[in-house]
Amino acid sequence: MVKTLDLGCGRHKIPGAIGVDISPETRADIIHELNNFPYPFEASSFEVIHCRHIIEHIEDLVSFFNEIHRIGKRGCLVKGVMPHFSSACSYSDPTHRHHLGVRVFEFFCSGEIIKRKWLKGRFDRLLGMRWPNIDYYNKAKFRLRSIHLEFSPIFRKLGIEWLANRDLDFYEFYLCGFLPARDIHFELEVVK
Questions:
Q1: Best CA proximity match to 28, nearest among 52, 51, 41, 10
Q2: Under CATH, which architecture does the 4-113+133-153+182-191 domain have?
Q3: Are 188 and 144 in contact (CB under 8 A)?
Q4: CA max distance for the chain
Q5: How far is residue 189's CA from residue 144's CA, in Å, rounded to a whole number?
Q6: Which of 133, 165, 121 is nearest to 146 (CA)?
């Protein structure tokens, strides 16, 4: 059986996972404030870690991802979802500490993570979309396995979701103010 952790599980803990949450009114197995490090687990304990709508609540994202790296086994899958910074949901909860975009993972992942699909980098300088790689500040490394912007049903039907995911940089630089995304879905792999 795959050893799974559900951080910030709330009342909807993933079946079979060890749930962690700050509130005793949830289905958590362990009550723990996720802003307090280290977490009560041995190093290299988990094969899968879920972070559903928790990252935006964390005060220190670098320490959080370092802790995820510490408790995840080599190759551990980190699956998560968080509101995109263009979403009204990102700003409606006063406990949200961060409003994030897809490039936040550049800090934790080695190499270029956003592959240019549509413009293929030809117009980066002209459009002002050049982006430096800043992955050298953090010791804990991850590999980005997937990233996907999710939109409201009407935007999905109109093809906006497809268009935005074709070129994430172009979307965030030029379109997100008019056509807001809802959530960022991601999957990382722990590199040790």
A1: 10
A2: 3-Layer(aba) Sandwich (3.40)
A3: yes
A4: 53
A5: 6
A6: 165
Instruction: Tell me what the pLDDT averaged over the chain comes to.
Output: 89
Q: Are strands 18-21 and 30-31 parallel, antiparallel or unpaired?
A: parallel
Tokens encoding 143: 């590999």
The single residue listed with the structure tokens 């790689």 is 133
| Residue type, position 166, single letter | R
Which pairs count as long-range contacts for 128-132, CB under 8 Å and 24+ apart, including other chains? Answer: 128/173, 129/169, 129/170, 129/173, 131/103, 131/106, 131/169
Query: In 17-83, at which residue ranges do the beta strands (DSSP E only) sit?
Result: 18-21, 30-31, 46-52, 72-83
- Quick one: which of 67, 90, 98, 189 has its CA closest to 149? 90
Helices (H), the chain: 61-71, 88-92, 124-127, 153-157, 160-166, 168-170
- Token pair for 47: 């094969």
The secondary structure of the chain in percent helix, strand, coil, rounded to multiples of 5, reads: 25, 25, 45
> Across the beta sheet with 141-150, what order do the strands follow?
30-31, 18-21, 4-7, 46-52, 72-83, 183-191, 141-150
Its pTM stands at 0.89
Interval 114-164: pLDDT, tens? 555 555 555 555 566 555 666 667 788 899 999 999 999 999 999 999 999
Distance of CA 95 to the CA centre of its chain: 17
